[in-house]
Amino acid sequence: MDYQAKLRELPVEHDFFIGIDSDGSVFDTMEIKQKLCFCPLFIDYFGFIEVAEQARETWEFVNLYSKTRGLNRFPALERTISLLAGRPEVKERNIVIPDTGSLQDWIKSASKHSNPALKQYAGKMSDPFLDLCLEWSEAVNSKIEETIHGFPPFPFVREVLDEIHGKADIIVVSQTPVEALEREWKEHDLERYPGIIAGQEYGTKKEHIKFAAGDKYNADRILLVGDAPGDLEAAIINGILFYPIVPGGEVDSWKNLYDEGIDRFLKGEYRGEYETGLIREFEESLPEDPPWK
After folding, report:
1. pTM of the complete model
2. Which CATH number fits domain 3-28+153-284: 2.60.320.10, 3.40.190.10, 3.40.50.1000, 3.60.10.10?
3. What does 60-98 look like in DSSP terms, one character per residue?
């Protein structure tokens, strides 16, 4: 399937466009997925049981509590292993650290960091580490499908969607696999709002915005809602507006978007001091350096 063509062909039905991230933004599932699915399987598959506490802390720092929050799972895997290798406790125990060189090469060369893309690449390489990365990622998906059910959207999400429905074209912008996204949005009767539910198979979030919105709308009429620095980066690169869902303050963020953010956006009063203040608060909520350094 040509996912980018689907984004390009998305019809313009309104003057405004809003892209919305899912995990950690719409649904309060980010921590539970990372702590119950991604991290335990990371420790198991990559042999870090002897330093499980350090591995857990490192994984959660990379994926939840730092400026790399929301990073695609494969770059996040590489960064976590790299940070873990430098920790004194790991060095002292002579833990065997996997060589992530082949994963780094694929990350740099691939346009999509998804299971199908890695499977195709790994099939040509005969590299045990890449095969292990794929096995881990597929196990994560299975664990999420088995475990993550019944988590409702944050308060005020539905109110915001009702408010913008019929006024803006909406898509989901995520690095979660499409199958999981569609299942979660359908479970809570939200799938009727977005024109497309774009996951990792559609490319990066920057590409989602570029191909779905691009030059179809005035830049001040395109808004990306997200909870991770990568979302902010995608907005900046595309020259569009950004509304942050602040980690730890998600309910307040959605309430503020409902109370005044959407109105400012639709009236053309969003860019400038208002947006800058929101972004400043968001950036201050996530550190860059790990606490153990």
Report:
1. 0.86
2. 3.40.50.1000
3. HHHHTSSTTTT--HHHHHHHHHHHHHT-HHHHHTTPPPP
